[in-house]
Amino acid sequence: MDRYGDGTRLVVELTGAVDFQVFALAGPERLVIDLSPVRWVLPDRTLTIGRDGVAQIRFGQFRPDTSRIVIDLDLPLILGSAQWLEADAVSRNPYRLILDLAPVPASAFLATVRVQPPDPAPLPRLRPLPPSLVRLIALDPGHGGRDPGAVSSGGVQEKVIVLTFARELRDVLQETGRYSVAMTRDSDRKVGLWQRVAFARNSGADVLLSIHVDRVHDRRVHGASVYTLSEEASDAETAELARFENKADIAAGIEVPEQLDPDVAAVLASMEQQGTMNCSVVLAGLLVPALGDVAPLVNRSHRMAEFRVLKAPDVPSVLIELGFLSNEQDAERLKSVNHRRALAVAILKAVDEYFLEPC
Ligand code: ZN
To answer: Is the confidence at residue 352, as pLDDT, over 60?
Structure first.
């Protein structure tokens, strides 16, 4: 968006052709651009502008067949002209929709206003950004207290690395202004697996990310991987990993009341009802390629098993293993603050994508 003559020019870049129509609404004054469905690239659905008569620009999916851009106005602007430019392979320009907005007296603006439809509920609301748009991420650094989790041959403990990483990830997420973070632990203390699940649910988290690093006998095995809950393990290694992670309570000396840890079949049934399982799988599906951009991945990097910490029936939950402490290169990489930062940014990218079309 930029000034153009007396008015304001808005350029929307697109990867394909769309149909569009522009109209004005009052109370408050805004211009609306309806497009045939598009997939937004920008993670933030509300852009604060605060100049040239434009307060902010919101965009999102209005109906299944319509994507909508709303320009909230500080001054009366009407659509002066609209141009559609085809993509140009030579200059590498994408498809562009160019809208020139012209300042007019308020009465002239009102003359163009449509009869007002009901407020589009799916769109982000007017500023300030309401708390409901700030997503709450539950971060769960594994292990803690008496339970070190995996330990490298050099004595590096999983519980330490994952807490360091979770704090760094918290900063990366919160710096965007799009997320707040609740941590199941922010110190070296024991937290039961079921307590972690209850924490995510009670805090109203939109997703739970449980953070771990792995260790296996074969020192060549390396890379990141992402896990979701399933009654049947996807493979023997994952079943073994789930057994190890589920033993955390015993390692930490926590008594687990049986009635608080429902049968995985029952949890899965209720998750299926609520679509939670599908959302966890979607999130895992976004995390794997994002992590793969910055770190090696294990084969078949999205795996499933009965992880107790993933049993919140109403909070999409994934367990991320950042790498293997049993592998020298992975252990070295995880010591690097730059590598951990790259992993955190990759997770942010996946989470952003996930909330573009939230489950
Ligand atoms: Zn672990």
So the answer is: yes
